[in-house]
Every structure is written in C-alpha cells, then in structure tokens.
Amino acid sequence: MEQQATIDLLYVAAFFLGGLGFAVGPFIISILLASRSTRNTRQKTKQLIECGVEPIGDAWIRFGVVYYLYALMFVAFAVDILFLFPVALIYNTQGLVGDLRAFVEILIFVGILSLIIIYAWKKGVFKWERKIYNPR
Amino acid sequence: MGTQNIQSPIVQFAQVDKLLDLGRANSLWPMTFGLACCAIEMMATGASRFDLARFGAEVFRPSPRQCDVMIVAGTINKKMAPAVETLYDQMPEPKWVIAMGNCAISGGPFIFDGQYAVVEGAEKLFPVDVFIPGCPPRPEALIEGILELEEKVTGSRRWPRVEVG
User: Fold this and answer.
1) Which residues of A touch B11 (CB under 8 A)?
2) Can you give the residue ranges of every domain in chain A?
3) Is B143 helix (H, G, I), strand (E, B) or coil?
4) How many interchain CB pairs under 8 A, A with B?
C-alpha cells in the first residue's frame, strides 16, 4: 500500500515535470537558438507601440469609473436571480408553507433587493458622465 | 545610428541551423502592411484564388514582433518612412524584406526633378532581399518572389521553376 502511494506520487511528479518541460522548454530553446540582437535603422527595437508611430503619453492613466459601477449593479441583480432559482424549485409544492406565504416572502426579498436601484439612482450611477478627469 | 550587425545565437550547430532555415523558409510570416496599390495585389495573393497558404506564407501578422518578412507593398512617402523603419526595427531576427513593385524598388513613377515627397526605393532605408518588379506586380509575381526568398533562406529551390513561353 505504502509502495503504491509512492509510485503514484512519482507518476504525478513525472507528469508535472513533463508539463513544466513543455511550458518552459520552448523559452529556453529559443533563448539558446535565437539571435541576440536585431538589425535596426533608428534604434526603435524596444519601442512598446507596434504600429510604427511614436507613442503619445503612457498607459498609466486613470480610467473613468462609470462602467465599473454599472457592472457592479449587474452583479447585484445576477446574485438576485441566483437566489430565485431555489425558490422556483419549491414554490408550487404543497406543504406547510402555503402558496400565499411563499409569494409574500419572495415579494419582500425582491422588494428589498430592488432598493438597490433607488440607492444607485440617488447616487447618480445611471447618469453616464465622467467622474474623473484626465489631468493632462 | 542604426546597426546592421547581428549578435549570433549562443548555441550554433550547422545541422540545427539548416533545419531551422528549412522551417523558416516554409512558414514565412509576412507583416500585414500595405502602403499603396501593391497591397491590393498582396491581399489578392493571400485570398482564395491565388492562395499564398499553399506556400506556407499566408499568416499575415498584425505585430512586427511576430513577423519574418516585411513585404514593402507600395510607395514609401517621406512622411511614412519613419514608421516603416520603426516597424523594421521591431521585427526580430531572422528577418527579410521584399520590395514589391516599382515604387518600393526605386520610387517608380515618382522620380522626377524637384520631387520632394517620396523615398526612392526601400533600399534607401534598410537592406532588401528580394525585388519584385511590376506596377503593380501580379499575385503570381509576389508568389515567385516569396519562392525566391525561400531559395535564399535554404539555398535550394523546393518548387519547380516555371518556364517562360
């Protein structure tokens, strides 16, 4: 039993090393076999932008947060839907929980979650305007 | 300013280099890069009727860092020349250049006294491996140019030479 476990571990290690070899191997091979420099005319080999044009400014800018808030709203309602699935499963079954009580409960649940909209509305999430301005 | 010297690889074996050259020659990756009307012919070459994929050279890459061969397809304006040179700089070794059409070879119809806007040939900017004459060259000519380049890379021609006439 002990021996079998060791052999299994060895298999895992062998496959791990194999996978690692396939992932890292090409990098090592290309470092060894590729030319270490390239012919150039204007010393622009290291320029980040690859369309031939001089870059304007850098990528470290502050982005508008508008869409992020909008996406957060979507997540809130996605979770809402997620909680409605179990309710849908037991909604119409007979038992201690009457139909009316289940209906009222789900009404309260969805009602509370709907307050998100009012909150976000008040906060101005639905107004699509830039909240941060680029200092440049 | 620039340099035409290449630092050679760390590991060098003649047989391995031959194998690599064979692979490179039969899977040349051109750059998606057209300057003028020759580019239309280049597109036609890549499309279904002339089908550059038969020769392994159909993978037009949008980034110079992934390219093997730059097909200078068209007139190089003086305004455009810095961009072309930057793209050439950003291609990794090994790289080749095909000058396609009369404009890329010598300036073509744009050579006249007092001409101020056009670079008279791609070779004014960087070394060129294959020249394809024509205004514009037919797709068959571009394919022949790529086959010539393959011959230059491997030292032998894989495809039969077409007899004229």
Assistant:
1) 32-33
2) 1-60, 65-123
3) helix
4) 87
